Amino acid sequence: MIPIVAASGFAGLGYEIAWTRQLSLAFGTEMMAVLGAIAGFFAGLALGAFALDGPIRRAKSPRTIYAALEAVIGLWSLVNVWLLPAAGRVLSPLLGTEPAPALLWGASFVFPTLVLLPATMAMGGTLAALERMTREAFADARISAGVFGANTAGAVAGTLVSTFVLIPAFGFSGTLFCLAAANAACALGTLVIGTSSNRTTPEADERQPHAISELRLTITLFATGLLGVAFEILVVRLAAQVMQDTVYTFAGLLAAYLLGTATGGLIWQRAGRHAGDGGLRCLLAGTALACLTTAVLAPHITRIAESAVEAGIVGELAVATALFLAPSTAMGALFGLLAQRVRDQRGSLGWAVGINSIGASIAPLLAAQLLIPTFGAWTALIPVALGYLLLLPLSRAAFAWSAAPAIVALVLWVRPTPSLTKVPPGGALLAVREGPMVTASVVDDASGTRYLDVNGHFRMGGTSSVRSDYRQAMLPLLLHPAPHRALFLGIGTGATVVGGSQMPGVTVQAVELSREVVDLLPWFATPAAGGPKPRVTVADARRYVAADTDSYDVIVADLFHPALDGSGSLYTIEHFEAVKKRLAPQGVFCQWLPLYQLDLPSLRAIVRAFLEVYPGGSAWLNHYSVRTPMLALIGPRDGKHFDLDRLAARLRDPLVRPVAGPLGFETPIDLLGQYVAGPRALSAFAGAGPRNTDDYPLVTFDAHRNVRALTAPPWSLLLAITRAIQPDPAELLVAPQRDHLSERLTAYWRARNRFLEAGAALPGDPRGRTLIEAASPGLLDALRFSPEFDPAYRPLIGMAKSLMTSDSTAAARLLREINEAAPSRGEARELLAREFGQ
Fold this sequence. Notes:
Layout: H1 2-27, H2 31-58, H3 62-95, H4 101-138, H5 144-195, H6 214-239, H7 247-272, H8 277-297, H9 301-308, H10 313-346, H11 350-375, H12 381-390, H13 396-414, E1 428-434, E2 439-444, E3 450-454, E4 458-462, H14 466-479, E5 485-489, H15 495-501, E6 507-512, H16 515-519, E7 535-538, H17 541-547, E8 552-557, H18 573-581, E9 583-594, H19 600-613, E10 618-621, E11 630-636, H20 644-652, H21 657-660, H22 668-672, E12 675-677, H23 679-686, H24 703-709, H25 716-724, H26 735-761, H27 768-785, H28 790-803, H29 808-821, H30 827-836
Parallel strand pairs: 5-6, 5-8, 6-7, 8-9
Antiparallel strand pairs: 1-2, 2-3, 3-4, 9-11, 10-11, 10-12
């Protein structure tokens, strides 16, 4: 029986993982949507537990009922292979681009409840059926906590195996088939065991504890479900600020929570299952104290997390265990005791599961709409912990048990709220906005550079990258022949959006997931005086695009960290297709990729997905920095060839020139020099391999390799691209233009690649004379390839000028070398004549 009990839990949590992620594709990753899906899942469990409690209690053969429930779960999971994606495609347009929070929450709750209802209702009855089957098999009247513990232990395995093995290997559809097979195995195994065993009715336990009143037991079960899931949400929210926040981070946290719950149930089954009201008081007070212990630990978890990074997933599991094990163990034992009380008083577990699940279904709304906005994620742990003490019956013993947790809570309440945002030495924390989804902060790094920090360890740009951010907007806008409307997906500090709004004649619409990030925009880029103000909508970018009905000349997608949980869905074929539907005729889509946060398999999968939707796509660089290299995938809707003459005319436009010129786009070759590859070269680079789709989200589940990419030299992937791809002018220009520019462009690209190699080869962070000696040979090589390669010529002239005051001989020698490498340019020759008479 025990393997069946565990296997049932395995399948149940596997479904929760898969379904929640599939639902996020329909609703987006706004906190209301994610938590609404969780609430809907628990609501279905509660309804099933109530509806099936009586039939299971009265059934002559609980095995038959259990087998039927497992069959329903498995069959409906197969229906959901088709139903969930289809319903999601219908729902986004119905919600619209800017649904009211109440509408989004309501839809996020009702939709999962209805779509998953047959399966979740059946799941709600399985624990009661399993408890009765196990009780009869072992002839033991007091086995409820053990069944709960074994079922939850299986859930731990289901969480980890589904996330780490099944979904990465088979995708969502394949995973649902595997889990349906587990349901079938449970059903068949139960029927086989049932035909070969004699049912026995366990004798009543003579050591019955004093019965708890119906109202008090109901309140306690409801409140513990509410408090337990609220605590889980708060700790997951805090952990996102110190851990990697990938799909594996959430799975590890959930597994640690379930592991503690299973451990508590099994411990109570063995050691405390005959305890009376004293045991209940002990567990309520102990749970409160354990929750407060996690609150004490949370501000210091950053150091533990940093030391665990090198251990990868194992390290994150260790951190998750440190946060969850003690409180969830106490919660598991507490539910085991309460479930046994219900079993003793009502004859079945269904009522206990139902009441507890109702509380759990309300917890997401409570945490997101009340606790975090009112107290903040860390401080909210204190009232949650105190909630367990309020469940103690008024008595002298209750006051004694409450003393220690109450004192700890008071100490934590009066102390300053800790910050999990890391501030560099000498820096300052200028502003903080904490919301249900993220904590956004403005940090000064002591050098005068201000940057946006999201969830404690993701830098989303700052004042030092404004020029680069402007170029992110300008490059795709210049590649369009005459843009009028632009949509920006993701805004960070807002500099890219502001840069786009400076293009004459362009109206800008922007979409940002986090309200907290939008609130901090005034600390960074602001629109030019008198210029148009971009319109910013707070919404999930994927859901917004699916629901939008407008069309745009240019759509620019920001640098989405591919490992960050939720970002991988913005790189799938389905999302790229949705974006294409929003492009006007001659429209252009630009997807920026952070090469310093990607590994090669993910990059190739993204390129394959992009080219499938935009077969005329090409790749471009933003700048020539090897510290934060960025690659743009540019997809024209109509697949037309690039028009060099129109680009030249736009760069000469007196309205465009003052905007594009200061960013380094003065002549066509300045922009064409960023070109990396056309569709044929990109296709060869990407090669054959899996497609990154909604059903098989390779990039999302490649997170562990993308996290490791953060520790590699940031230029590694950039150089892998430039070494593997030789740009072909024939893929960029039509014949007359190609004949004129082909040789110049090829030389320019060779100079660019040599420049990048030289930048990557610089040892450490050299300054002054050391920098000149280390960098000048590579820059001179680049000039020999292409004398018009300004990114090498200008720095070399600057180096020569800086040497004039300290070493005139070295300055003259460097100027001669510059002149020899680029004799067609006169600045070095003029300096030699003016300063040294040569």
